[in-house]
Amino acid sequence: MSYGSAHLVHAMLDGLRYVLWVVVSGFAVVGAAFYGGAGVAAVWQKSGPPARRRNDEIAREAAEGIAEIEAFLATQHPEQEPPEPPPAPRRERPPTTGDTV
Fold this sequence. Notes:
The protein is 63% helix and 0% strand. By secondary structure, the chain is mainly alpha-helical. The protein has one domain (3-73). It starts with a helix and ends in a 26-residue tail after the last helix. Keywords: Membrane, Transmembrane, Transmembrane helix. The chain crosses the membrane at residues 20-44. Residues 75-101 are annotated as: Disordered.
């Protein structure tokens, strides 16, 4: 192997080593950001104020509506299914070039 080709091989290996270090460093940074961000979010949620509960009129009406629906469904019998509607009427196709009228 000549001096020039050996120098080229070493330069390519140095470039490959640089790219691998960038990739490994990127994985480390992404992993630290992922796990660190989740840890910070958990601590922030624990130290923050508790979540507000909706005890307003909308929540009360929703609970009443759900209770009414459940009461209605409890009185229904599953055997009484509505009859299947008749099929929709089909329109006739207009005649094409090869059809006889």
